[in-house]
Amino acid sequence: MAEAVTPTPLLKDELDIVIPTIRNLDFLEMWRPFFQQYHLIIVQDGDPAKTIKVPEGFDYELYNRNDINRILGPKASCISFKDSACRCFGYLVSKKKYVFTIDDDCFVATEPSGKKINALEQHIKNLLCPSTPFFFNTLYDPYRGGADFVRGYPFSLREGVPTAVSHGLWLNIPDYDAPTQLVKPLERNTRYVDAVMTIPKGTLFPMCGMNLAFNRELIGPAMYFGLMGDGQPIGRYDDMWAGWCTKVICDHLGLGVKTGLPYIYHSKASNPFVNLKKEYKGIYWQEELIPFFQSVALPKDCNTVQKCYIELSKQVRAKLSKVDDYFVKLADAMVTWIEAWDELNPSPADLSNGSSK
Amino acid sequence: MAEAVTPTPLLKDELDIVIPTIRNLDFLEMWRPFFQQYHLIIVQDGDPAKTIKVPEGFDYELYNRNDINRILGPKASCISFKDSACRCFGYLVSKKKYVFTIDDDCFVATEPSGKKINALEQHIKNLLCPSTPFFFNTLYDPYRGGADFVRGYPFSLREGVPTAVSHGLWLNIPDYDAPTQLVKPLERNTRYVDAVMTIPKGTLFPMCGMNLAFNRELIGPAMYFGLMGDGQPIGRYDDMWAGWCTKVICDHLGLGVKTGLPYIYHSKASNPFVNLKKEYKGIYWQEELIPFFQSVALPKDCNTVQKCYIELSKQVRAKLSKVDDYFVKLADAMVTWIEAWDELNPSPADLSNGSSK
């Protein structure tokens, strides 16, 4: 291929970029060389009367609250309002195999060499190569150029498992909770760690939704961002909730979750006082939620993400309602989410049966 | 402190550097600025009649096979001969709280900036700050300058647990098994990953003995490098064995294991044909050993490393003898090792009772 020809971007027709927003999407200008050939799904939060400007030349569909209500009807109750948790509506309506989601205050980061980082390309690489959740490789991703499995790594585990999730990181403003933001207002992440790694089976992690990609076919129905924001007692735990559920289900189904590269440049710290108000219940609830998720066991016959998720919703209702009534509502919403997912994403079998469930 | 004054090195009187060798220790010249103020324990392998030259100015004690036999008597049978596994004799005779062990083909590595890496200093930092085995922190070591726990990390887990092991990595020649060496003879590790991380609870890893530090008080008796080399059916699994045992015991006792920085420069690839001969049994045995270690459960009353290790030896005998008779011998040697450890390292209680066991 001649140098002058722009190479076809990876998975151009198999990936949607999902962006939740309340403002004009000027940030896309910076991403133009990397995103312009992909399809965007914009989920407009807040006042549906407001017009969100999208820079010219991008291929997108945009949904505001009226669209969500129209498309989902009563099931729209499972989609959060006035919280970036609404982004998961984009996962629901996507028809692609892969999703990349990014916040509108995230810019293109640079490598130490000064090279601009194509975050999407790295996510795709992460998703297309296997994960190794059953044993730790000390030289990080064994599938990367210049690396491999080290001495003592069992050969039977070297094929790895399919990767469901690629969790990217952030330079500049780190993703801290409100108390840490308050204590360290000036801390910036300047350390570029040149690694991608699999999070081992059985280990939970704090999944941030700012710079995240996943295989929608493998794990989509678990990527529900919960009930946050307007009318809810909690915010800023949408991605955490999705991360705990997703990891537990990936572990059960033998799928991989990676974290590390790519970095984006996170430009703007959110207001720590506002965040504290959103987070404070989560901060003490999570002390009970984490042990719950660490001990969740899914039965063997849960062999699809949907079945796992419904089973998880039952356990949430049974075991977390004592933490707060909110978890009963959340368990209901988890079920509604799966119903909405199946309605908008009928399986080939459903279609051939002519059933619309 | 004025610039001209050499600062007192960290833990100068609390750390021994253990080096197994069969040759003159010229490699120490390169390490002089970093090691000279520490005490060295040199374990001479092979012919005890040979004289090993140590560069001038180093403070050391040296043990050859005659010394090992004299000091341990019949228990010397647990110390390998003609294999770097003999290094664990140095752990036995050390009287210090910390041990750093390094191979004599490891040189000082450089950071991407060109700065020489003080590997020992980084190991000490790793050992002196806590580990976080119960939940994954996506920004790596939360105790490092410029980093912290990210949003969603439970506050109850932020104190961490004591760190027992610091596992360092290698630039240049990676630590590959013989098959990988044969397939990729020219592969060199040039990727400097600027991270230290805790290996999560419940996850095993391939521990390499080339560049390794540990808290001898916390985990010393588990750092037995097994029966390798002369008269044994296997080699190059000494550190792997120690790593599996150590990790299982650290998990049980709530201790941390870190991996990542510091790097050393590994200068010389060992002969892959010789390695293949040493390793081939290990390569198929490990397919049964890993599941064994992944499912080991230690009873609650195993509340010391010694008790854990004796219990582990029983399980090795009961469950691995079907793999090969070698594991019966190894289980015996594990018990002998603990007897030798207790003899050379009587607890204060033993001393005050006047008992020498």
Automatic annotation (TrEMBL), chains A, B:
One of its GO terms (biological process) is plant-type cell wall organization or biogenesis. The keyword Ribonucleoprotein does not apply. The record marks 151, 158 as: Required for activity. The keyword Cell wall biogenesis/degradation applies. One of its GO terms (molecular function) is UDP-arabinopyranose mutase activity. Signal peptide: none annotated. GO terms for cellular component: cytosol; Golgi apparatus. Its main location: Golgi. Glycans are attached at residue 151. It catalyses: UDP-beta-L-arabinofuranose = UDP-beta-L-arabinopyranose. It is found in: Golgi apparatus. Its EC number is 5.4.99.30. Keywords: Cell wall biogenesis/degradation, Glycoprotein, Golgi apparatus, Isomerase. Transmembrane segments: none annotated. Belongs to the RGP family. Probable UDP-L-arabinose mutase involved in the biosynthesis of cell wall non-cellulosic polysaccharides. This is UDP-arabinopyranose mutase. It comes from Linum tenue.
